[in-house]
Write a structure and sequence with these properties.
190 residues; alpha+beta; two-stranded antiparallel ribbon; 6 helices; globular
Length: 190
């Protein structure tokens, strides 16, 4: 049995199924316009890198690393949203992703237990996310990127359901809210 991966770790949401879809989730309120940036300070980026499983300890992110992470986040959101909406990827974000992915990335290594890990600076770890995004967006899984249909949710996720008809970023969050609302609507109508 596969262990359940926690959807929320250290205050960050990981519902996308892949890190290039989880990084854009660090900006909440995209639909409402009431933005809440979970990457408000360099230490927040360090915490996200640890929560994402990219770093074992704090990577020592700088203000420049934080700025790069925010730029990468918006680049990934624009490109993944284009894939989710089945439209051509916009040129400027596509070129920005290519430039980001061409930078030095974190080095892979095996820890004492045989688990794969990455070593590098915060920027190196972000480059690894950018490279994973190229594989995701340009590969067959890119066609399975969806946007949550929750009325106030903009989270992008990889639909790994057999039928390819998943609608919610999470059944325990948006899916449950939708089911409760539908039940209440039926009760009122009935």
């Amino acid at each position: 049995m596969t262990p359940k991966i926690e959807e929320t770790r250290d205050g960050f949401r990981f519902r996308g199924g892949r890190l290039p879809l989880d990084l854009p989730a660090t900006l909440a309120g995209r639909v409402s316009g009431n933005h809440r940036d979970a990457l408000a300070a360099p230490g927040d980026l360090d915490r996200w890198l640890v929560a994402a499983g990219l770093a074992e300890g704090l990577a020592g992110a700088s203000p420049e690393d934080l700025s790069a992470a925010r730029e990468l986040r918006e680049t990934l959101y624009a490109l993944a949203l284009a894939r989710a909406e089945d439209r051509p990827m916009p040129e400027t974000p596509r070129e920005a992703l290519n430039v980001f992915a061409a930078k030095p990335a974190a080095a892979p290594w095996l820890d004492a237990s045989g688990a794969p890990r990455l070593k590098g600076s915060a920027r190196d770890l972000l480059t690894s996310v950018a490279r994973e995004a190229i594989d995701l967006l340009g590969g067959p899984d890119g066609a399975r990127i969806r946007q949550c249909q929750g009325p106030v949710c903009a989270i992008l996720f990889l639909d790994t359901s057999r039928k390819g008809d998943r609608r919610w970023c999470s059944m325990s969050a948006c899916g449950n809210r939708a089911k409760v609302a539908a039940f209440r609507d039926r009760e009122r109508a009935g």
